[in-house]
UniProtKB/TrEMBL annotation:
SMART domains: GAF (SM00065), HATPase_c (SM00387). It comes from the Bacteria. It catalyses: ATP + protein L-histidine = ADP + protein N-phospho-L-histidine. This is histidine kinase. Signal peptide: none annotated. It is an enzyme of class 2 (transferase). It comes from Massilia atriviolacea. The keyword Transferase applies. Its EC number is 2.7.13.3.
Length: 450
């Protein structure tokens, strides 16, 4: 037997295989290289490696780059046992099995027909032990002629099984890790899906609750004017009927005059209350701002404000309030100018009605400047009464007003919020201090979403 300088070539080869393991090369490539490394150490040897399944009984080929593929395929799925060729027996016994002649050895009685036609006559097999003395498979050296191992051959299985054990265990750990990773990922995905479903459900419930509150509020608000109108109408009908009844017996002038006065009063009550109901219905309609009904176009913000402000300035002047502007030049938007103008009008109107209700000499400042992420920041500030801290978080809720019965329905800021976060796709923030004033800050995408 010629052993090709085992010390140097084998050492270099072992380093190469270890490097492949460290670099995380595929197990198949590592085992193939390992088989070739051993084959390079001893003439005429053909190496194979069988892997033992988790069931501890079945083996399948892990590598055998120089053996006939048909022979390896025939070994796939064989069961280990006391008389199962060299490999099956070596794994079963947990020790090296040397078969010097496959044709005559009883261990190969059931298998030599698989090997001999491929010209394989000797097979020495050594079990591969992993951590905890667990057998991972076997390493085999085949020869084309009957043969017993020589002194030099004995060290090769040691090298092969040692490196193979490292490679196989690492690959198994990695696939276990990958399994854990997949499992974790699946868990995270499932949790995320459950969370977003719960979130959607919450949003839906929130919307339903808001809708419920809105409907209840609408009913409550309309109840008073409709109730008043009903009383006035019923009263008018009663009086008319009574008057008609007294026509037969002769009608006094004073009776007729009283009726006219009562009818006039009832008419005024009816008109006032129905007007109030009509105003309420008009503001309810604003609550649902439908982008489909609003025109979208490109516009310059300064031009929109130039159109919007003159009538507001007239109203403000009547109350001794000035409106100042600080608009960055060239602010272009592609959005919904109608709803934006409506929101700004509500905000200015609120300053006039609430911030400066008891004071004159107030100032409203409207500022606009570009913001990050292609947004536009528009603020409406006043130096008036400010909003009390307990009220501040509720100002966007429908029917929240500090002027009930004095014309306030508490829908203005609800509408503004709907416009800003809905059709304009932005957000609104409030900064307010009692006695110092309030600032409503709108951050809007310069180009509204489709
Ligand atoms: N600039 C402001 N200064 C002080 N208080 C304000 C200001 N803007 C809003 N508020 C407070 O927020 C409440 C809610 O405003 P919102 O516009 O929703 O309703 P409203 O003005 O009372 O009624 P509506 O707008 O329906 O006529 C107001 O009643 C007021 O108390
Ligand atoms: Mg208002």
């Amino acid at each position: 037997m010629i052993v090709k300088s085992p010390s140097n070539t084998a050492r270099d080869g072992q380093h190469r295989v270890l490097e492949m393991i460290a670099r995380g090369a595929a197990l198949q490539d590592i085992l193939d290289s390992l088989m070739r490394l051993i084959e390079a150490q001893s003439e005429d040897v053909l190496c194979s490696l069988m892997l033992l399944d988790d069931d501890g009984r079945t083996v399948h080929p892990g590598a055998g780059p120089s053996l006939p593929p048909a022979f390896l395929a025939a070994l796939d799925g064989l069961t280990i046992g006391p008389c199962a060729g060299s490999c099956g027996t070596a794994i079963h016994r947990g020790e090296t099995v040397i078969v010097t002649d496959i044709l005559s050895d009883p261990l190969w009685a059931d298998y030599h027909a698989l090997a001999v036609p491929h010209g394989l006559r000797a097979c020495w097999s050594t079990p591969i032990y992993g951590d905890g003395q667990r057998i991972l498979g076997s390493f085999a050296m085949y020869y084309r002629a009957p043969k017993a191992p020589g002194e030099d051959d004995l060290c090769l299985p040691g090298i092969a099984t040692h490196l193979a054990a490292i490679a196989i265990e690492r690959a198994r750990r990695e696939s276990e890790l990958a399994l854990h990773r997949d499992h974790l990922q699946a868990l995270v995905e499932a949790r995320t899906a459950a969370l977003s479903q719960a979130q959607e459900e919450l949003v839906r419930r929130d919307r339903l609750a808001a809708l419920g509150a809105l409907v209840a509020g609408v009913a409550h608000e309309l109840n008073t004017p409709i109730g008043n109108s009903l009383i006035a109408a019923t009263c008018l009908a009663d009086k008319t009927r009574a008057l008609a009844g007294s026509v037969e017996g002769g009608l006094r002038r004073s009776q007729l005059a009283r009726f006219f006065a009562q009818a006039d009063e009832a008419g005024q009550i009816l008109a006032r209350n129905l007007q109030r109901a009509a105003r309420l219905v008009a503001s309810f309609k604003q609550v649902a701002v439908d982008p489909g009904n609003s025109e979208r176009r490109a516009f310059m913000l300064c031009e929109l404000l130039a159109e919007l402000l003159p009538p507001l300035r007239v109203l403000a002047r009547q109350r001794g309030v000035v409106i100042e502007t600080d608009i960055a030049p060239g602010l272009a938007m592609d959005s919904y100018p109608g709803p934006l103008a409506e929101a700004l009008t509500h905000l200015v109107d609120n300053c006039l009605v609430h911030a400066f209700a008891d004071t004159a000499d107030g100032a409203i400042v409207i500022r606009a400047a570009p913001a990050i992420d292609a947004s536009v920041r528009i603020s409406v500030s006043d130096n008036g009464a400010g909003i009390a801290p307990p009220l501040a978080p509720r100002v966007y809720d429908p029917f929240v007003t500090t002027r009930p019965g004095a014309g306030g329905s508490g829908l203005g800021l609800h509408v503004v919020h709907n416009i800003v976060s809905g059709v304009l796709g932005g957000r609104i923030e409030l900064d307010s201090a009692l006695g110092k004033g309030s600032t409503f800050r709108l951050t809007l995408p310069a180009i509204a979403g489709a």
